[in-house]
Amino acid sequence: MRETEILERAFAMPLTSPSYPPGPYRFVNREYLIITYRTDPAKLRAVVPEPLELDQREALVKYEFIRMPDSNGFGDYTESGQVIPVSFRGRRGSYTHCMFLDDEGPISGGRELWGFPKKLAKPTLRTEVDTLIGTLDYGPLRVATGTMGYKHREVDLSHVKASLEAPNFLLKIIPHVDGTPRICELVEYHLEDVTIKGAWTGPAALHLTPHALAPVADLPVLEVVSAVHILADLTLGLGKVVHDYLQQPSRRLLEARAMSLVG
Prior knowledge:
This protein is an alpha+beta fold. The chain is 18% helix and 50% strand. It has helices at 3-9, 41-47, 104-114, 157-165, 250-262, and strands at residues 25-38, 60-71, 75-88, 91-101, 118-120, 122-128, 131-138, 141-149, 153-154, 168-175, 181-189, 191-201, 204-208, 223-236, 240-244.
């Protein structure tokens, strides 16, 4: 294979059979259960990377269960994880702290393209009689259970649409072949062409169980604040780099930290 052929075909790994196709990535009937809860402020500050900022008055986390039955290139899958309200240079948005899902394509694509912190697990989202139920299993163990009364009250669709269209931030890390970071960036992306088909709220509860490799309970539930159930069509837009941690002076800090570990 000639070098020109490699460059023409190089999009994703592996070269001859990529785990996911090029976009656009359109989602139809994407269903969310989002439970917003209050947590320990110190533990929240410990996981949100600078230069993102937290609201000093609140310590909120959004626990999400997302069902995606029809997504271009990725197929039919479900994911679950934690998203944290933040601000960046005066703009309010969300930082994705962790995500767990059950499909190789969006795990690979999410990590390689955007920097989504995705790991393999078994999330579900379903309706059981009068209750919307989200679960997350890591191996044989249940680590998250969320419930909400099914469609108790409709909510303002324009408010929901605005919340989905707000900026989203990710920490993208790709190592060099020697194990040092080759890419370490703060990435911003947006959901595009959003159509809200319905949105509802109701009474909700969330239970998180400690797990060494799926540590969602490290941000403990102190109080459930609200919950929303959303059905939408949307496109997952590609990202842009808004902060490079390997540029000066961040690189000097990284080198100093490495020297201290060696010493």
